[in-house]
């Protein structure tokens, strides 16, 4: 590794005539209401007002700028009020869709959740969240129906088990995706857990990094199966072995989906684990200083990376932010499929880990508490969440695996899922999300039930990602069958809930975005038959070894 300080080289970045709100080019004046709100008051300060004022005086005392802006930095969003169909989503102002209840995210950041943590998370759900809890595809536990009066108690309980809601939402470094098998997988390249912990310790809740142009997503894995969807994060660290220096990480930047998807750019550099937090800080600082802040739709790192290109991004990172040149190295081999770790696997210490799945991430508080009890009963270390709305039980003795698999099944978590249950994800959708146009979770649960009847055995994996709007929180463009919620016309010409279909997307080897054809639209009611037709055609027409994606 070459970590000698570089000669001081000035990096010239021309100042465009029309600024996009890039701070470092002198455009410091807020160009929209989100930027104004962040300038008016650092969003992290809202915690004090939640604890000291709003939780005591109630919902009506909340300053609207906090309610619809800064609350997000504490993991809180107002949830969608019931009674508005998807047609209203675009017609009404956000505040008209506001309920008096909140969605709350707790970030897990790749940590092992032990029995106490799981029972605490479960108790919060049953006591304060009407028994709701979802595992998101970003290592979060997400509750609904939270009332402002209960937030201080929830914060206290979450923090008592080493977790936080801090910056789980907002224009901030959101929850990290870490490998669910960090430190335990036999074939691991490197355990990156300590780097994630250090990033969190130094930078989460740090006011220097709490006013970003928009959200900033981090992924880190030392597992060869790239099990954290590194292609679609703002910054990803991916295990790679340097021929001289040994195991470390490749750095990828500027991935993201939503309405303008980009796969991450590989910088072609290798960093040792000790340097990961500094490099993370360099990348997030570039985003903070040069990211576009005028239009929310362009305020993601992917646009800056696309405009600058790899070489310029790397030059600015090394020369302006790190002061050292990073070692050059080809990126690691891309796996055939990204690991979801479902099933029973032997770990490197001779014990086992068990990947199990709820249905599209939907669990509840009772299940979380039950899971905590099972971890204790079987003497396991705990549970990690995955990037696919699933979970992995860690540290199980060999003679306990069968009993644990059976017990997991009893609480609705299976280690032997069908293809459909294993490979279908769904976002929050119209049940709670103010941006949603259609229902997602229950529709997916029904779809899975039906597909399990129609195709009980499948010898080739097919993934389905169901999204309630174009924002692609459940990754519309990178599934075999990606569904983007929208209103469509039924056979009588009426507008009804449905989906634009994207076909043949994927991550890992052959990563690409699914094709979107105008004709590929389906009503929600017609979804079961539509997917059935797709799968039937694929099975009938495939050549030997041909995947759905190809
Ligand atoms: Fe909400 Fe749309 Fe994201 Fe689904 S994809 S959670 S509907 S913003």
Automatic annotation (TrEMBL):
Family: Belongs to the nitrite and sulfite reductase 4Fe-4S domain family.
EC number from the UniProt entry: 1.8.7.1
Annotated catalysed reactions: hydrogen sulfide + 6 oxidized [2Fe-2S]-[ferredoxin] + 3 H2O = sulfite + 6 reduced [2Fe-2S]-[ferredoxin] + 7 H(+)
Record-given protein name: assimilatory sulfite reductase (ferredoxin)
Domain Nitrite/Sulfite reductase ferredoxin-like: 98-160, 345-410
Keyword match Iron: yes
Domain spans labelled Nitrite/sulphite reductase 4Fe-4S: 169-322, 422-550
Region named Disordered: 1-43
Coiled coil: none
Described function: Catalyzes the reduction of sulfite to sulfide, a step in the biosynthesis of sulfur-containing amino acids and cofactors.
A Pfam family assignment: NIR_SIR_ferr
Organism: Nocardioides phosphati
Gene3D superfamilies tied to this protein: 3.90.480.20, Sulfite Reductase Hemoprotein, domain 1
Cofactor(s) required, per the database record: [4Fe-4S] cluster
PANTHER family (alphabetical): FERREDOXIN--NITRITE REDUCTASE, CHLOROPLASTIC
Domain of life: Bacteria
EC main group: oxidoreductase
SUPFAM superfamilies: Nitrite and sulphite reductase 4Fe-4S domain-like, Nitrite/Sulfite reductase N-terminal domain-like
UniProt entry keywords in alphabetical sequence: 4Fe-4S, Heme, Iron, Iron-sulfur, Metal-binding, Oxidoreductase, Thioether bond
Keyword Lyase: no
Start-end of Basic and acidic residues biased regions: 12-42
């Amino acid at each position: 590794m070459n970590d000698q300080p570089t000669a001081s080289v000035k990096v010239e970045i021309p100042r465009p005539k029309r600024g996009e709100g890039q701070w470092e080019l002198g455009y410091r004046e807020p160009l929209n209401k989100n930027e104004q709100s962040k300038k008016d008051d650092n969003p992290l300060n809202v915690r004090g007002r939640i604890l000291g004022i709003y939780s005591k005086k109630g919902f009506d005392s909340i300053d609207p700028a906090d309610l619809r802006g800064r609350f997000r930095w504490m993991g809180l969003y107002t949830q969608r009020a019931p009674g508005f169909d998807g047609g209203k989503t675009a017609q009404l102002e956000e505040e008209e869709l506001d309920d008096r209840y909140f969605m709350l995210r707790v970030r897990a950041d790749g940590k092992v959740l032990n029995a106490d943590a799981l029972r605490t998370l479960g108790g919060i759900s049953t006591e304060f969240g009407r028994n709701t809890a979802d595992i998101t595809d970003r290592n979060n536990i997400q509750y609904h129906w939270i009332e402002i009066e209960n937030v201080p108690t929830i914060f206290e309980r979450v923090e008592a088990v080493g977790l936080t809601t801090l910056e789980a939402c907002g224009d901030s470094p959101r929850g990290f995706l870490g490998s669910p098998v960090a430190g335990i997988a036999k074939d691991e390249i490197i355990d990156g857990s300590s780097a994630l912990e250090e990033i969190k310790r130094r930078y989460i809740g740090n006011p220097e990094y709490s006013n970003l142009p928009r959200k900033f997503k981090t992924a880190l894995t030392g597992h060869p199966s790239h099990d954290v969807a590194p292609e679609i994060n703002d910054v990803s660290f991916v295990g790679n072995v340097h021929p001289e220096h040994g195991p470390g990480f490749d750095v990828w930047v500027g991935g993201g989906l939503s309405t303008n998807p980009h796969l991450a750019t590989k910088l072609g550099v290798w960093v040792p684990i000790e340097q990961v937090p500094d490099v993370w800080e360099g990348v997030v600082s570039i985003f903070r200083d040069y990211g576009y802040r005028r239009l929310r739709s362009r305020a993601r790192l992917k646009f800056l990376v696309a405009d600058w290109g790899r070489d310029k991004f790397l030059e600015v990172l090394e020369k302006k932010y790190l002061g050292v040149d990073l070692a050059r190295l080809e990126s690691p081999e891309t796996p055939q499929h990204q690991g979801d770790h479902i099933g029973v696997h032997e770990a490197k210490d001779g014990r086992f880990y068990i990947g199990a799945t709820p249905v599209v991430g939907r669990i509840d508080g009772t299940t979380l508490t039950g899971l905590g009890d099972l971890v204790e009963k079987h003497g396991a270390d705990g549970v990690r969440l995955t990037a696919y709305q699933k979970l992995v039980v860690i540290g199980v003795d060999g003679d306990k695996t069968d009993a644990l698999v059976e017990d997991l099944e009893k609480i609705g978590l299976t280690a032997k899922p069908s293809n459909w249950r294993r490979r279908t994800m769904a976002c929050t959708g119209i049940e709670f999300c103010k941006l949603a146009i259609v229902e997602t979770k229950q529709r997916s649960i029904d779809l899975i039930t039906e597909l399990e009847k129609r195709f009980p055995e499948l010898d080739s994996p097919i993934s389905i990602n169901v999204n309630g709007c174009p924002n692609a929180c459940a990754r519309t463009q990178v599934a075999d069958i990606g569904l983007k919620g929208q209103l469509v016309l039924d056979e009588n010409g009426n507008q009804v809930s449905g989906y634009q279909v994207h076909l043949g997307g994927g991550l890992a080897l052959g990563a690409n975005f699914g094709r979107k054809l105008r004709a590929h639209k389906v009503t929600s009611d017609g979804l079961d038959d539509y997917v059935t037709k797709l799968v039937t055609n694929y099975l009938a027409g495939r050549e030997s070894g041909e995947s759905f994606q190809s």
